[in-house]
Amino acid sequence: MVQKRAAVLEVLRSSEGHLQADEIFRRVKQYYPNMVLATVYNNLHALTNDGYIRHIKTATGADFYDKTPTPHEHALCVNCGKLIDADLGDLAALLHERADVPVLSYDLILHTVCPDCDSGCNENNI
Amino acid sequence: MVQKRAAVLEVLRSSEGHLQADEIFRRVKQYYPNMVLATVYNNLHALTNDGYIRHIKTATGADFYDKTPTPHEHALCVNCGKLIDADLGDLAALLHERADVPVLSYDLILHTVCPDCDSGCNENNI
DNA sequence: ACTCTTTTTAGAACAATTCTAAAAGGAGGC
DNA sequence: GCCTCCTTTTAGAATTGTTCTAAAAAGAGT
């Protein structure tokens, strides 16, 4: 494992777990100031391919990277834009079972109000 | 309802049901050659707001518009890129029930091989 | 040291969508 | 028939996150 790839992985692992490429870039840049965004993308793709992390595409075009590669669902906070984990049990099995088409995989993003925003919801008039 | 808006809706209604903006543009342009893509987007937004159609965002950035506004799920064919309807029963209820976060709404796209591609799958070495 | 492959860089390119400001169109009142 | 107001349309630029390209740099193995 190459230095900068390791740095990208380390930044992600030491984070809350769901970062966007530009945020990872910002953080890795503190250790490697001459780092470039393309390198972050290169390494994120490589790490995703190798199964170290997971790439979560959202419909808004702002993709997230997840330090936890094992399958689980996600929810996007409509207030703060943060991506959090969501527990839906073994949804994959259920989708396979119920769907009237073969399910190779799926993209699911719930829209929610995260606990942080919910507790402070008066501030933002939700 | 204004002429061009009606034309956009009519093109969508007379289609298989899941078109992308540029395809709608191409089709409407046959009747209104001076039509512009921005107008298609304007009208698609208006029609979506008014509940005539549904806007389906995909993670690939290629959004679809659905002539059927009532809730149902979708599957994207990994071979031909077509979006088809998928029946999963009342998934919304299930997600609300199972999720450990409040579910305001959700984006779900299954990945599948559509019947057309499945029947001709040898041609494309799937 | 030499070669081969991988990684990194810099910056351009991309693609779908959105924005902006101006022009055109249409409806209703007078 | 004209005026005013509001909506729709146009043209084209801007946006945004991501991907591509070609060249430079770095590493590994011999």
In the CATH hierarchy, the architecture of the largest domain in chain A is Orthogonal Bundle
Quote the distance from N terminus to C terminus of chain A.
45 Å
Number of strands of chain A: 6
Q: What is the 3D shape of chain A? A: globular
Structural class of chain A: alpha+beta
Order of helices and strands of chain A: HEHHEEEEHEH
| Alpha plus pi helix count of chain A | 5
What is the radius of gyration of chain A computed over CA atoms, rounded to a whole number of angstroms?
A: 17 Å
Q: Identify the quaternary structure here.
A: homodimer
Would you state the CATH class of the largest domain in chain A? Mainly Alpha
Describe the structure.
- Two copies of one chain form a homodimer.
- Chain A has 126 residues and is an alpha+beta fold.
- Chain A folds into two domains: 1-69, Winged helix-like DNA-binding domain superfamily/Winged helix DNA-binding domain (Arc Repressor Mutant, subunit A), CATH 1.10.10; 71-126, 2-Layer Sandwich (Dna Ligase, domain 1), CATH 3.30.1490.190.
- Chain A has helices at 3-13, 21-29, 37-49, 91-98, 115-119; strands at 18-20, 54-56, 64-66, 73-77, 83-86, 105-112.
- In chain A, β4 (73-77) and β5 (83-86) form a beta hairpin.
- The N and C termini of chain A lie far apart (45 Å).
- The model of chain A has no long low-confidence stretch (mean pLDDT 91).
- Chains A and B meet through α4 and β6 of A and α4 and β6 of B.
- Chain A binds a DNA duplex (30 and 30 nucleotides) through residues 2, 4-5, 20-22, 34-39, 41-43, 46, 61-63.
